[in-house]
Amino acid sequence: MTATTTRPGRVEVHGVHKSFGTLEVLQGIDLVVEPGSVTVVLGPSGSGKSTLLRSINHLEKVDRGFIALDGELVGYRRRSHRGGDRLHELQEKDLLRQRTRFGFVFQNFNLFPHLTALENVVEAPVSAQGRRRGEVEAEARELLARVGLADKAAVHPRQLSGGQQQRVAIARALAMRPAVLLFDEPTSALDPELVGEVLGVIEDLARTGTTMIVVTHEIGFARKAADQVVFMDAGRIVETGPPEQVLDAPRHERTRAFLAKVL
Ligand code: ADP
Ligand code: MG
């Protein structure tokens, strides 16, 4: 079995604020994700879940606060300046290198339509990490097998079901050997009968100790796979805890109201 990561993957979100114009979408987010753990993020539409995920790998620049991965600031570097410390934005090249430590799986798969499943998985490790194509291809075949698609290597995305496309997207994320996998509603675009096969793959990954942050409305998945459940509303984390606490004995009325709607 190919190692998916060689690194721990501890994520720390500290005092993060983010606005779009006058709308403050993240209003002071604090969150710690331990290496090898699974965090499920729940919350109503518009509560800031996607913005939080995108901020974690610096697809969004936060206005205040910071994100760290294994103690290293994401998107910035600390440099001493006249006796004090100042933050400097990372150069594009360093940012890209840092970003490859996060794998991102989107709601709409975002596969390259003109590439086969195998080529989709091989592309980034070769072009962004400069690894040898032959070696990456062998690993990509293993990864496709791991998500149950060994026989689909030569097929293009349009010939695959949504569930199969999302499993290719997961293999593609894993091919970068990320320290942390970020999933933004990975099953929301799927027909109901295809949700289970994708959640099954994510659960298998969870058991291998991959650090994951998963935004989803799938409460059953949260119960089975999550070490911690985070409930967000209106740009804040309302409560955080183990699934049995947040899902079965929520402390806040807003969490209860949300759960009553999705359960
Ligand atoms: P969620 O994923 O929980 O549904 P989002 O993080 O996508 O929430 O969005 C939170 C709020 O921020 C929403 O009101 C959304 O319209 C707004 N928003 C998100 N991205 C942008 C953007 N790039 N520009 C302006 N507003 C945005
Ligand atoms: Mg979203």
Automatic annotation (TrEMBL):
CDD domains: ABC_HisP_GlnQ. The keyword Cell membrane applies. One of its GO terms (molecular function) is ATP hydrolysis activity. Transmembrane segments: none annotated. It comes from Geodermatophilus sabuli. Signal peptide: none annotated. One of its GO terms (cellular component) is plasma membrane. This is ABC-type polar-amino-acid transporter. It holds the Pfam family ABC_tran.
